Amino acid sequence: MPDYPTTLPLPEPDNYNGTLDQGLIRTSFRVTAPNQVKGYNSYREDISMSFSMDNDTYDAWITWVNSNGYDWFNMPVVSSRTPTDITSTQLVRFSSDVQVAKQGDNWLTVTVGAELQPKVIP
Strand, helix or coil at 68? Predict the structure, then answer.
């Protein structure tokens, strides 16, 4: 399993945004007591990550992402079980298209959706 390169920028922890998909499936029509079941036994933890970098770094970053980013890899991220100022290495894979926003002549912000390793719910 590849590691995220230390030469590439880490995601900005202030911009993390995400959801926990519990896998709930409810009846699709209105009833007095809707039926609800869990579709799977581990929830999906999706977050949006933003990276800031210059144009040359972006070339190296997007090359690595296209080769490795959509399979599981190890990456330092803000831990989902600790305060936001503590990072931990977790299994991550990107799960969306890359969005690029130019911030200046030679600077840009890249945003991509990511999935953290599923955690089994007992």
Answer: helix
Q: How far apart are CA 67 and CA 96, in angstroms?
A: 15
Tokens representing 84?
């936001």
| Main-chain dihedrals φ then ψ at residue 71, nearest 5 degrees | -110, 165
Strand pairing class (42-54; 24-26) = unpaired
SS3 (DSSP) at 117: strand
Tell me what percent of the chain is helix, strand and coil, each rounded to the nearest 5: 15, 50, 35
DSSP secondary structure code for residue 59 in this structure: H
C-alpha–C-alpha distance, residues 67 and 2, integer Å: 11
Distance between CA atoms of residues 2 and 89, nearest Å: 12
**32, pLDDT greater than 70:** no
Residue 82 is predicted with a pLDDT of 54
| Number of Cβ atoms within 10 Å of the Cβ of 85 | 8
User: How far from each other are the two terminal CA atoms of the chain, in whole angstroms?
Assistant: 26
Predicted model pTM: 0.73
